[in-house]
């Protein structure tokens, strides 16, 4: 009998699982003993990590977009585009339906459908949405606004947690400062006030908070912490926090709240937080819909308490693909995800005047990152990571 693995979502997490399994089970696939099917609503992979850099011209669409067919092993039955759009997931009957009303059954299911911005989650936000978090188009729109900046108050507001890559908003603020200061000139930078609104007290774990706070202070980026965005009043050009505090702006850049995709919510798979619950070590589904050991949940769609980054999603996909291989071999071995993740930090952009500084701090559930210093080598490694991503990362070779 053919064992069927069905993977929902061909993003940073799902692609690695598909490619690793396709390699491990190449013989079984050729003999029809294992079948790997993958559904995704889009035919192209857009590396969202690049969105942060688009407004500053540091990456182009050619750098961050690839056709999925080039990334996924031909041994995987990939259904990409309209035919691959998931409508519902029925765990009790092991059935996934697409919008085009095709049904897929499975022995093992991988849920890796990422998350979406919930712009409507903040009243008024839709009427003044400038962001690098939603799409490439929005990042380009922001690029035009950033390039036209001459003076005024720029407010960067992170509505609430969790969001994918919680480090990206701070990186954006630092890149904006560097861009204005070194590309547009000190005079322009002096006339632009940058304020960073953050919904919690610390900006990440202590070492991350220390590094970000220091750069913000040195570069004159104002920070207001515990500012949970409740409303955008675009007529008066001000943002209002849950506490009632207000902040005026000339240009508002917002990181909207995020949630898991509608199809999973409609299928009753999410918990009260709006995310898909799973055991944080085995990543197997365990929630209101029951406990399903044959269902793995990973990446941005996963439990609210698991930090959402592409590097974390990568580590999770290594554990999930190994455990799926163990399940298929029937050897009873289980590997644990221990919360391994990385969240890149930027200290300054690379310019003729500054050599660029960055670092990729890593941590786990039980061990926070050590204190670190952003370095020039870190800057080059982080920039390179976007290219290694296609040939080694997504292919599951590292
Ligand atoms: C602005 C920004 C900057 C970031 N910077 C970094 C960084 O520097 N470093 C880092 O590690 N991480 C970064 N991240 C986070 C990283 O991009 C995510 O954590 C990672 O992509 C999560 O992988 P995933 O597979 O869970 O989701 P995704 O990569 O989003 O993949 C989900 C897939 O599911 C598909 N899908 C969704 N709904 C459906 C449906 N109904 N039917 C079929 N398919 C569907 C989508 O098309 C998509 O291909 C950043 C994110 C953003 C937004």
Task: Present the secondary structure layout.
Elements: E1 3-8, H1 12-24, H2 26-30, E2 34-40, E3 44-46, H3 61-64, E4 65-67, H4 68-71, E5 77-80, E6 86-90, E7 95-98, E8 103-105, E9 108-111, E10 116-117, H5 136-147, E11 152-158, H6 168-184, H7 186-191, E12 192-197, H8 206-219, E13 222-224, E14 229-233, E15 238-241, E16 246-248, E17 251-255, E18 258-259, H9 262-266, E19 284-287, E20 290-297, H10 310-329, E21 341-342, E22 345-350, E23 355-359, E24 362-363, H11 376-393
Parallel strand pairs: 1-2, 1-9, 2-5, 9-20, 11-12, 11-17, 12-13
Antiparallel strand pairs: 3-4, 6-7, 7-8, 10-18, 14-15, 15-16, 19-20, 21-24, 22-23
The chain binds flavin-adenine dinucleotide.
If you had to describe this structure to a student in words, what would you say it looks like?
The protein has two domains: 3-115 and 260-329, 3-Layer(bba) Sandwich (FAD/NAD(P)-binding domain), CATH 3.50.50.60; 117-258, FAD/NAD(P)-binding domain. 45% of the residues are buried. Strands 5-2-1-9-20-19 form a six-stranded mixed β-sheet. It has a four-stranded parallel β-sheet with strand order 13-12-11-17. The model has no long low-confidence stretch (mean pLDDT 97). The chain has eleven helices and 24 strands. Helix 1 packs parallel to helix 10 and helix 6 (168-184) packs parallel to helix 8 (206-219). It is 30% helix and 26% strand. It is of the alpha/beta class. The structure holds flavin-adenine dinucleotide (FAD). Flavin-adenine dinucleotide is lined by residues 9-14, 39-42, 48-49, 51-52, 84-86, 112-114, 132-133, 164-165, 168, 261, 263, 299-301, 308-311, 313, 344.
């Amino acid at each position: 009998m053919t064992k069927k693995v069905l993977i929902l979502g061909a993003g940073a997490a799902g692609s690695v699982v598909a490619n690793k399994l396709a390699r491990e089970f190449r013989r079984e696939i050729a003999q029809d003993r294992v079948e790997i099917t993958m559904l995704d609503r889009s035919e192209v992979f857009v590396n969202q990590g690049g969105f942060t850099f688009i407004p500053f011209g540091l990456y182009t669409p050619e750098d961050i977009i690839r056709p999925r067919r080039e990334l996924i092993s031909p041994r995987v039955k990939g259904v990409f585009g309209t035919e691959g759009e998931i409508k519902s997931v029925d765990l009790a009957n092991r059935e996934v339906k697409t919008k085009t009303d095709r049904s897929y059954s499975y022995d093992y299911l991988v849920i890796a459908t990422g998350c979406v911005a919930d712009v409507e989650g903040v009243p008024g936000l839709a009427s003044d949405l400038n962001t690098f978090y939603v799409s490439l188009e929005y990042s380009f729109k922001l690029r035009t606004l950033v390039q036209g900046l001459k003076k005024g108050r720029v407010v960067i507001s992170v509505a609430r947690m969790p969001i994918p890559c919680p480090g990206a908003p701070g990186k954006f603020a630092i890149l904006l400062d560097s861009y204005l200061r070194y590309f547009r000139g000190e005079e322009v930078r002096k006339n632009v006030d940058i304020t960073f609104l953050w919904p919690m007290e610390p900006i990440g774990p202590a070492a991350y908070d220390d590094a970000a706070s220091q750069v913000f202070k040195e570069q004159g980026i104002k920070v207001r912490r515990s500012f949970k965005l409740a409303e955008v009043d675009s007529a008066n050009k001000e943002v209002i926090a849950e506490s009632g505090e207000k902040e005026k702006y000339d240009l508002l850049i917002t990181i909207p709240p995020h949630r898991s995709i509608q199809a999973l919510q409609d299928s009753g798979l999410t918990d009260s937080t709006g995310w898909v619950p799973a055991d944080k070590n085995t990543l197997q589904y365990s929630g209101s819909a029951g406990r399903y050991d044959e269902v793995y949940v990973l990446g941005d769609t996963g439990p609210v308490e698991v930090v959402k980054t592409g590097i974390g999603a990568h580590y999770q996909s290594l554990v999930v693909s190994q455990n799926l291989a163990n399940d298929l071999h029937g050897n009873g071995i289980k590997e644990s995800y221990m919360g391994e993740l990385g969240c890149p930090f930027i200290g300054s952009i690379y310019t003729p005047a500054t050599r660029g500084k960055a670092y990729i701090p890593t941590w786990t559930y039980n061990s926070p990152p050590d204190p670190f210093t952003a370095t020039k080598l870190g800057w080059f490694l982080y920039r390179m990571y976007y290219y290694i991503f296609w040939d080694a990362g997504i292919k599951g070779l590292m």
